Fold each of these.
Amino acid sequence: MTKYRILIFLITVFLFSTCTGPGGVRQIKLGHGLGVTHPVHEAMVFMAKLVDEKSKGQMQIRIYPNQQLGTERELVELLQIGSLGMTKVSSATLESFAPKIQVLSMPYLFRDDEHRDKVLKGEIGKQLLSESEEFWLKGLVYYDAGKRSFYTKTKSVESPEDLKGLKVRTLESNMAINMIKSFGSSPTPVSYGELYTALQQGIVDGAENNPPSLYTSRHYEVCKFYSINEHTAVPDVVIVSTKVWNKLDDQEKQWIQEAADESAVYQYKLWAESVEESLREMEKAGVIITYPDQTPFREAVESLYETIKLTQPEMYEMVERIRRVE
């Protein structure tokens, strides 16, 4: 048995042995990879508080941050076997389990924030949340993960030309990998928890993420150039194991769904505040923040859309549906 399998086994035993607390209180474990100062973590703490209040203490969500229970992908796999109740993932991570959701990783897909919100909160968003259920993963709600931009160690990225030859950390997503290639750089998947060290050691030359994640991860201590080209707006998704969900009664499901929905409203507010604070504090720390013209970046990824149109017509049809949302 490999170390990984032993770890999964031990976690499984631990989680199953503590699924019911004192007095018959229903306890659901939620693991994620972010730090406790991240606005997404704060929103999930708020969600747990709401569940406790709505259930009058009969249901609790226990949160394990900082990859205590595994990486993002490992947590998803634990959900699939029913050993973990809930997690937060990037929708890009869900691509391996629900391929249709990769449309949300398309670069420059949304016209603006209003367009994005209408898509995610409307019929298309609900449809994509349900896509992973056949893989034992139920989407509850989207969290704002902002817009992703490049940060690097040695120079500002003012055009795709500046990315050529660089090793850029990317999400474990085919769409994200192909996007990085279209900019002329070498995509290098690295676990988020290992990225700080990878940047320090030169395993990668840079990465791409939103302002709060760059700030709370302290990656700005290594990368002093942040070029806000906003190439993607990949949302986070709060998901629950269907093997856990299906054991809940209707009232328990309602408590969780209502708490998740309300926490998303709170998270959007926290996120907006965090973006402003993160940019302000990073500037104080000496990070050079620029806002390059997006035009050459948009032109560089047009080939991705042409490829999708030819090779994945169903995906391109979803792109067209999203573009038609007013």
Amino acid sequence: MTPKFTLSTQRLSLRLIEHDEAEKLRELVVRSPSLHQWIDWCTPTFSLKDSERFLLATRLNWVKGDAFGFGLFRHNDGMLVGMVAINELYHTFNMASMGYWVSDQYQHQGYAKEAVQKVIEFCFDLLKVTRIELVCDPQNEASHALAASCGAEKESVARNRFIFDGQPKDGLIFSLIPPSSQ
């Protein structure tokens, strides 16, 4: 998958965030306090250098085929509103882990659902995975609601499922499988 790969929905272009858009990413993260409690790299002190490092790592993962971080850009004005990412591909198990966030000012407008549904299609149709996991903090009810609205089934709480600020945390697991497997 080349870094120029793009997905499109009715209102959004989903693509890699370019290096020269690092300041846009930084501003979204800093101005989104609702994210700070759920995503450990999203902090009120997220700097331009942090943003540049994040984008470089995202690009390297994309080129290696290890992960795909899509910036969500509105068609009408090119505004970056959030991200949906295939955080990890587990080739041995033919599955992917997906994460998502939308900046506070763009929440509750359907962007996350629109983008997540498109990335689900990407996973099943292009990557040919047979399972997608969406792992959420058990307290993050907005994330749970989004996962469920996209057809994901709540499975379990997995102990020490992810790391937040260097500490293991339990994760609520939602999953999706291709429609042909149901």
Amino acid sequence: METKKKSKAIVWISYILQGIIVLMFLMGAFMNLSQNEEAIKGAIAMGYPRETMLYLGIVQLIAIILYAIPRTVTIGAILITGWLGGAVATHVIHKDPIFNLFFPVIFGIVVWGSIWLRNNKLKALLSN
């Protein structure tokens, strides 16, 4: 099997993108875990009961921790993708403007793109 050498710039870009995702999701998880008033208002407006905030924060935190660890990055990306799918579904159910659907989709692309940039197995899987 041919091994392709990755440039340092590409590897750094992939880690920077992954770091941005980790920071964004950590912020959301901590807002849910801390029962931040802004997070509670937003969740209630979307139809989620206040009591679910802690559990949503725990799920989000677990997903992002798994995504941040190199050995579990794939399972973390799968969990984050599920989370983002739920965000898209919530926006669709509430008939939000199409613009609101773009953010979770773009985040999902960045989640997987950051891994794809440095993972030859994922590149091979997606190129077939």
Amino acid sequence: MKRPVIFCDFDGTITESDNIVAIMKHFDPPGWEPLVEQVVTGKISIRDGVGRMFELLPSASRAEVAQFVFDTAKIRAGFPELLSYCDRHQIEFLVTSGGIDFFLLPLLGPFPIAQDHIYCNASDFSGERIRIVWPNPCDENCKNDCGMCKTTVIRRYPQDSYVRILIGDSVTDFEGAKLADLVFARSHLITKCEELGLPYVPFETFHDVVRHLGENTIQEGV
């Protein structure tokens, strides 16, 4: 029987809002809004857009930016219960995020997720401006310049051996949704799934995810 594995987005999924957009709105560096619009509409790549957004911020603002996220980010209801469910049922759980390490890792610190199961972008504060580093680039099968390539991670879990479950909400999840056997979607990902004709399960909290997994997925191996 295939083994289930979950690939879970962070910004707007594990957290209730997109922290990168929240950072940009709060600190409001000139030029950030067109970059967000161009990423969402696909006019520029995620890697290009996110990299250019953070270059608008001085490295000296690192602590202030991180503190803003710590003070404002809210973990979506049911997340501890989802992790507990995965542990009980031996479901491998990976965080696959286009977020940045300096705020993402501390927020996930209280939760029992192994470091090697967290995929995200890194950061460099050695220069005058914040520089984003990309330790998880696209493989030869992806040409989307994702930055943190979720499809590359997903392909490490072959479909003939795994039930690949994606949980997400936005542009960084669009390509991964095409590969997944089961998609839990909210926000922009719902719109994209409907455009592409991809089946999905809508969710608002992780309680919804746990409920669906308990009622359907594990037993049916879908």
